[in-house]
């Protein structure tokens, strides 16, 4: 039985072209799938993970992998990262100076802020009016609020700290407070409230920082720290950036945020 043998040079041609084909398809795939770390502020890690988990399912984001890095490189690091990648993460709204660096933000959620008290105040529920009288020093003893007879200690943060800035914005009476104790980091305030020195203190911060037993319920009080993504002007018309802005404003996203115990972004009329 006679069968045609394929000339050797044909084989070689076929072999070379298939290798060429393999390489080119590998190349085009690596171009199609861009990896973008999303780095920046610590407090926005969880909500950014939630955001990209759902945003990545959208057709426009199909050729991108967004990796939300849990290690914090701080708010400023997030702004810087947005020069290299599509997005960085913020821990508070951008200020005027930051916006002048050609940066824009997408607020994706607000972290609930709360007031907390030490273990021995005997008070766990007050009105907004009573809160005001504590911070204006009209009320100076927990006994005046039905608690233990002990002087109220005001534990605070430095003026530019993110949670304190948000609280002042939402409740201006907190602007002129002279604190007894100023703590410079989140964990320091948490530890102070838990310690015996903080037994009669009142403080504040992101609700998620504290055990629920320390939370002070304040009627009619509602405040949140806006967290978001930052992008550079050069990517303003990028389809992925535009889609992320739309997604952040969608009802789907607002429901997801609320279901995960965050506050949705404020609707700017």
Automatic annotation (TrEMBL):
Keyword set includes RNA-binding: no
Domain of life: Bacteria
Signal peptide span: 1-32
InterPro entries cross-referenced by the UniProt entry: PBP_domain, Phosphate_ABC_transporter
Gene3D superfamilies: Periplasmic binding protein-like II
Domain PBP: 85-170
Entry keyword set: Signal
Protein name per the record: PBP domain-containing protein
